[in-house]
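We recall that each integer encodes one residue's backbone shape. We quote one record:
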Amino acid sequence: MNAHTETLFPEYEQEQGTLHTTGVLPSQKILGLVNKGYISAEVDIEDAQIQPASIDLRLGPKAYRIQASFLPGPHSGVMNKLQEWLIVELDIATPTVFERGCVYIVPLMEHMNLPSDIGAKANPKSTAGRLDIFTRLITDGAIEFEQVPNGYKGGLYAEIVPRTFPILLTQGDRLNQLRFSRGKPPSLDSRLQKLDEEEILVYEAGDRPGEASIRNGLRLSINLQGTSEDEVVGYRAKKHAPAIEFTKINRYTPTDFWEIIQNPKNNSLILNPDDFYILGSKEKIRVPPHYAAEMVAYDSSIGEFRIHYAGFFDPGFGYGLSDVKGTHAVLEVRSHDVPFIIEDGQTVGRLIYERLMAPSEKIYGVNIGSSYQCQGLSLSKQFRRN
């Protein structure tokens, strides 16, 4: 164990309750990384950026529109590589339109100087996913997206491709989040089964405990029946809709951008290629405060579609202060090359649970500004809610 780790995590040498030497870093450990200088930025990192098991990353002042997506490879930096494919440099100190279908690279404000045994994985934030903003993290020397290797020292960059709506983005906007980990505790179905027995991970309609379908993670199914209170089962994005300003909350009328999908005939729905859908899970799920979870974005054994660009679920999701009995997962869905039929109750994805090193001092919910706790079938926070 190196000196960095000993000063950052002195409790490794103590037997304190449920502390572990491996796992996902909770909020207080992420704050420790910031305070020790392992995460830095020219503009001070705000407390609101630190989530229960991740940190939000902020767009810097410049964006670069390029010809195509790329990975720099092990011997190149992102800024050097993008010069070969640069179309135009943009100043995004004020709201700037990112056109749909175009590829942009934005250097982020945050800089990493990680200990040798700490790495990270990135995902889009929920709001970016629900707006169909395809965004991935890149590091210098990267051979894959969304990964920050152990001990990484360097800048972070967001690749941004609006898929459905033109988006106005500004310096400081937060589209990406980073989850840190030390080691890799095994994610075993037997452990998940025991966790379900202790905590109840799944609830059904009427707040009844549900049966957790566990196989390589917790399986989730699609809801195309609606509920007793609402027959709306989803939304399909309209083509050629107006631009959306990312920072405008509760601003836009949903029907200007979305077609409402009512409970369909035969409880089945044809996903059209190139269309974007917001749908919901049949199950209401929970993530215990000492765990984090991630939705598997695509599994070819389940179907020819992609779900959930924004895959992180925070500790405390589906709990809340008033004995919440789980929260529905809202799924961003795209079919691939062919029309594909999905049916009510069909398995559409898996949720992988990961143990935290210690319970998080921040828990997902309204008290820390979480936008989607207790959600039903919710569009992103830019749209007005009834």
